[in-house]
Here is the input.
Amino acid sequence: MKRTLIRTLVILAAVSFVACLKSAESSFFRNFSLRQLVKENKNCSGLDGGTEGGGGGGISAGAGGLGGGSREFHSSKGDACLCKLKPAAEGAVDETALMASLASDVEKAITSSGPKIVERGTPDSSGFYFVYNFDNAKGRVTISGKNLQADQYSLQANLEESGVVK
Here is the structure.
């Protein structure tokens, strides 16, 4: 019984390891955490770093075979962070400054992990996006925020990557 359990665990660990090695997504996509981004951002004044409440996200991935040993992939995931406002800043989040600071950190994270940014935008003061290319693939990250109550601020991130792996 113990031997079967150990064998099963070893096989599962090996399969997981191989699956990670063959992942088509960029390291930016695989390592992205909105909560970590907020915690490490020194300019998120007024926010407690996302330790109150919170949210997770789902990851969905799809792959299809192509001729010649290539495969197509499309991956997406979302992440959310509910931040409690510090008492001195309740109801007074400077969204423009907050988003500019977060955008700067996201831009650094993208470029330091390899992809090249090909488009960026700020549809309004409460959000931004980046479109990037890497290898034979492209990705997009969108982050937006909004005040929920006098003492809570919600951040939402959506990431998508797609392309061809040879």
In short: Residues 2-21 form the longest helix (20 residues). The chain has one domain: 24-165. The mean pLDDT is 79.
